[in-house]
Design brief:
About 35% of the residues lie in helices and about 15% in strands. By secondary structure, the chain is an alpha/beta fold.
């Protein structure tokens, strides 16, 4: 996150997630601790009642909400009011939480998009679109983890193009155990099995090279709407015994 002014360079940062459990986006709070731990006071706030299973670094202060709907929202609103002068980084928490943050007096929160599903039912679409519209009356910084998710947000939710900052990937622990590869044994895909993720392309690429590499296996890990289709495609493949 680029610091906008000298006055903001030492403000505390509140990293807000739905639940403080390990995940791709949630674990990004560790980058804050590593980058700003000596310069800022850092907070992790779990909207739902949960223990901190994300980062237990003593420089990261932890607080949590409640599992009940209204209790969760009221507690978070009070939390925002108490820290409204600080910086809030909302990790794809939805328009209701964003609107509460703004109404509580938090100035220019950073909203981080890392998904493409914003409503599942017609009723959800109505009230969530209203919440997004109301939130759009305020000043907000938007960032997204890919051009695809940024484009979906721009077309379906709000006519803004978020700044794209790709997910970081810490390769140091893998690099420490590197070894020279003598043969190709496995390729893998890990992620949500949703349209736009190009998981079908992974299967096609495997089919294209499977004959050339008879020992090669394809491993897919994840869940989502495309899983039944992908499983059916894999079952029809002549290399199905090598697709896990």
């Amino acid at each position: 996150m680029r610091e906008q002014s000298t006055s903001a360079r030492h403000l505390p940062v509140h990293y807000v997630v739905w639940r403080s459990l390990p995940g791709g986006a949630e674990l990004s709070v560790r980058h804050y601790v590593e980058g700003y731990g000596a310069k800022r006071r850092l907070y992790l706030y779990s909207l739902r009642d949960s223990d901190n299973a994300v980062c237990t670094d003593p420089r990261l202060h932890f607080d949590k909400g409640a599992d009940g709907g209204w209790a969760c929202y009221k507690r978070y609103f009070r939390y925002c009011r108490a820290h409204r002068q600080d910086i809030f980084h909302l990790m794809s928490t939805g328009p209701i939480i964003l609107l509460l943050t703004l109404l509580a007096g938090v100035r220019t929160p950073l909203y981080h998009i890392h998904g493409t599903i914003y409503w599942k039912k017609k009723l959800d679409r109505v009230y969530l679109r209203i919440a997004w519209w109301l939130a759009g009356l305020f000043r907000i910084h938007f960032v997204a983890n890919s051009e695809y998710s940024a484009g979906i947000f721009d077309r379906k939710v709000m006519p803004v193009h978020p700044r794209v900052i790709y997910n970081g990937f810490d390769v140091e622990r893998f690099w420490a155990h590197r070894s020279k590869r003598t043969r190709l044994r496995r390729i893998a895909y890990i992620g949500r099995l949703q349209p736009g993720k190009n998981t079908e392309l992974v299967l096609s690429l495997f089919e294209a090279i499977a004959d050339k590499y008879p020992e090669l296996e394809l491993h897919l890990a994840g869940d989502g709407a495309l899983r039944p289709t992908l499983e059916a495609t894999a079952a029809k493949s002549v290399h199905r015994d090598r697709i896990v």
